[in-house]
Design brief:
With 40 residues, this protein is mostly helical. It has one domain (1-40). It is 90% helix and 0% strand. The protein is built from 1 helix and no strands. It is rod-shaped. The chain starts with a helix and ends with a helix.
Length: 40
């Protein structure tokens, strides 16, 4: 493993964590919006 491989692995891990965070926030926001619409 040379330096470029290590940098690529770190970048992939960071992007994966960012993607998981965005998806979880999107699901939570959508669930809250559905609850607001069903409860006037």
């Amino acid at each position: 493993m040379n330096g470029f491989d290590i940098v690529m692995v770190i970048a992939i891990i960071l992007f994966a964590r960012l993607g998981v965070r965005l998806v979880t926030q999107y699901i939570k926001m959508r669930k809250d919006k559905d609850n607001d619409e069903s409860n006037p």
